[in-house]
Amino acid sequence: KDGKASLVFDAKELEVHALAVGPDGAVYAGTSPKGKIYRIPEGGEAKVFFDPGEEYLWAMLFDGAGNLYAGTGKNGKIYRVSPEGNGEIWLDSDETHVRSLAFRSDGKLLAGTDPGGLVLEVSGPGKSFVLYDAPVREIAALACDTKGNVYAAGLETKAMAGGMPPMPIPVPIGPGAQPPAPPGGGDNPEA
Predict the structure, then answer these.
(1) Burial class (CB in 10 A: 0-12, 13-18, 19+), 103
(2) DSSP count for the chain of H helices, then E strands
(3) Distance of alpha carbon 131 from the chain centroid
(4) DSSP conformational letter for 35
(5) Which of 6, 47, 102, 166 has its CA 20 to 30 A from that of 148?
(6) How many CB atoms lie within 10 A of CB 31?
(7) Rounded to an integer, what distance in angstroms lies between the CA atom of residue 26 and that of residue 17?
(8) Are 66 and 77 in contact (CB under 8 A)?
(9) What is the pLDDT of residues 130-165, one digit of tens each?
(10) Are the C-beta atoms of 13 and 34 separated by less than 8 Å?
């Protein structure tokens, strides 16, 4: 506030990978490993809001009804947590990690995964389909615009699995979008 930083939460776990601000104005932090979701009210003490029993909490966001969605890993699940802190498995994917989450303008939940590099559309509890199978292993971030376009940031091409990952690869999804050419290939004569 006013250009000054202050520590508001020091997690017992090693890392915080996900943050979201709830409709109640509190900050929610997803920790890893042995991840938990903490609720941190302004000026108040952090308390465990939900413990999914997962290793990693990678991504979190709220819907319009105040439910919190959390993407997790090592088991590739998405949890939906009510405003009261009651959680349920919303999707149990075949992927190892759900690394990113976003809502499309039509309200559909999207999830980016690892290691398949998939963008999933989640239409309800236990219901999803592959919206896009990217040429990368990990969809680290998702963003949606009001025109229905979905943008995905990918890491490590599938062809480079196990090698040094390149810089993030933006993967546009939507009307008229074209996936990027694979590294060293495509129509680029200089490649």
Answers:
(1) middle
(2) 0, 15
(3) 15
(4) -
(5) 166
(6) 21
(7) 17
(8) no
(9) 999 999 999 999 999 998 899 999 998 776 655 544
(10) yes
Q: Are 173 and 180 in contact (CB under 8 A)?
A: no
CA distance 58 to 113: 10
Q: Give the C-alpha separation, 191 to 184, whole Å.
A: 5
For the segment 66-98, what is each residue's pLDDT rounded down to a tens digit? 999 999 999 999 999 999 999 999 999 999 999
Say whether pTM exceeds 0.85.
no
Which two tokens mark 182?
């694979």
Residue type, 62: F
**74 cis-preceded (ω within 30 degrees of 0):** yes
What is the number of other CB atoms lying within 10 angstroms of the CB of residue 16?
A: 16
The residue count of the chain comes to 191
Phi, psi (5° rounding) for residue 188?
Answer: -80, 110
